[in-house]
Amino acid sequence: MADWAPPLPPAAFEARAAALQARMGHDGIDALLLTTPADVFYVTGFLTRFWESPARPWFVLLPASGGPVAVIPAIGAPLMRRCHAEVIRTWPSPDPEDDGVSLLTETLAGLVSEGGRIGLPMGLETHLRAPLGTYHAVRDALAPRRFVDATATVQRVREIKSEPEVALIREACAIAGRAIDRVPDIAGPGTPLDAVFRAFQSALLEEGAEWVSYVAGGAGPEGYADVISPADARPLAPGDVLMLDTGAVRQGYFCDFDRNWSVGPPSDAVRRAQDALYAATEAALDQLRPGMTARDAHAILSETTRAHGATPCEGRLGHGLGITLTEWPSFTPRDDTPLRENMVLTLEPSAETVPGRILCHEENIVLRADGPELLSPRAPATLPELGT
Amino acid sequence: MADWAPPLPPAAFEARAAALQARMGHDGIDALLLTTPADVFYVTGFLTRFWESPARPWFVLLPASGGPVAVIPAIGAPLMRRCHAEVIRTWPSPDPEDDGVSLLTETLAGLVSEGGRIGLPMGLETHLRAPLGTYHAVRDALAPRRFVDATATVQRVREIKSEPEVALIREACAIAGRAIDRVPDIAGPGTPLDAVFRAFQSALLEEGAEWVSYVAGGAGPEGYADVISPADARPLAPGDVLMLDTGAVRQGYFCDFDRNWSVGPPSDAVRRAQDALYAATEAALDQLRPGMTARDAHAILSETTRAHGATPCEGRLGHGLGITLTEWPSFTPRDDTPLRENMVLTLEPSAETVPGRILCHEENIVLRADGPELLSPRAPATLPELGT
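^ inputs. structure came back:
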């Protein structure tokens, strides 16, 4: 029965460890300490929805050489044994007296000499998925060893996708594409938005998603007010624009793109924004190249939107994608992260239609040497209509 | 179109702030700094699946008096305006140069005097949902103000559920109950486990869940090896025990209970474990009272299981439940958290059937003065059979 295995072969995990270790050498880091679902999955293949329970911390260490060392709650041992940890050490978590502190301390002390540096992601787009008190206790116990920021160490490796990774993201995109094709059967004038969200999630599951980690959207006349609010029960009405945005998951890999529909014919304002955003994405698909920066991508998307007579929204206009719904970099005027070959990215231009209402487009690409390769099925140039 | 509103009336959020502030006074805390989805939702009603994106940190402060202060990425402002923050301050996140650090520092400096103490949950079953570097920078900038652990401050308040909260959890349980009733139509001999997981998630959505944040389970002869692994494609076979465990979400409130089915008649070992676990839950339903501790609950469940000839599993045998899939306390031999009236809890006895295989039961209750009130529909005493 224990047939589940990580979605990539053992050699892929060996290659990841080697790439991280090369970068650790470059950054002067003697061991990595990883705590988040994505980092743990990346290094070991450990994939589970059990992260939904915040009760227990999980630690994976990557020493300067050799395979990953898992220091985890005992409940995770059977699954971790099917993954790619060279050593698995467990404790009975949650333990109010010592929830992994002494085991983690002892394990790190054995891997890193007293003058050594332990890398932990501490920077932009990271977080510590463990109690802060645990970090304090382990850091104090391990002195004079130092904890240093390993954000770049992890991000420069994780951001380049292998072909099997690209294939899984393409598969997630195809699943979402098939569910999107079914939206005219799901939504029309009179359908409450929350019913649309529910039926769309079911469609994603039926089309092959294992999990639907993210569905968002909005609906309203001339566009929507924001893209992160829960659905309400208001029925779709003629003149509404409906947007659905999904992060469906296939074997731990996400898609993240959206689609818009007009309930009946769109207004001129919506049509203008639609044309501008379609053109902005076309421009990025045409012009984006490795060697540009995230800021350059933002400029292409916002300037093209503006050149077509629409007002681009504040905020980022695209980002990385892979084993979380969003990854770095962020297409903003302030992010100068270089875009590199085989990054998977979203193009997400958005524009104001009328004051307080917006339209957002989103596509997923892998950046090749000669430009973007689409992973999501390209949105139609003209806004499709529902209920006509 | 902006019809969505938090699931509880404004007075409920005022009462929460007041309860936290009373406890803060008791604990000598001048402001709370909250970073996790559950804590932010608890204090403001801010509910969104957008937390799935790890790109941005979000901060909610609760001063010693007055309402919550939200220091959040600009993208969240429209939704937060529909929630219960008295002040909303935003920055254009993600910003590689200053991702909220200066705004958070300035805001906290205005709320807490130099001799003051800022409480942040740092203990068991918490984590910091923000970059560690952000915490370091804000802490250093705010010295001599001190950051102290606010785990108990938050947990002693959040763990007592109001009647509207209990009603929402009961509703989530009812949704899951209806989906469970449909499992005989979903699963039988020959159905691959991953297809069962998909169809079960769709059933939960169709029955009224807004999100299916958690579905897990297992299937195998004489039980399953663990309860957190992803589903594989192996078809169910006669002699298997199938288990499905769900954290379906209704208005931000979770259920968390499971059910087991036997594919054809169960073995004697499975039948024995089933009887012992059913008896263990019955004993807890009969005996649990406010004033007992989490350890006492563990003792009732494990000792009854053993008295009925089965071997209880290591690990916790129940836990809190509410706005995350699992909350404290944990029913282990080491957790002496007092059980209090109107805590919502899971009873989760599990036992070994044969070496390496287990059976797990789980029910959800609210603890009343005179004992548990079931929120989940009670599992049948006898293991139901599929495909007969």
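Chain B touches chain A through 92 residues (CB under 8 Å). The first strand of chain B starts at residue 31 and ends at 34.
thumbs up if we can close this ticket
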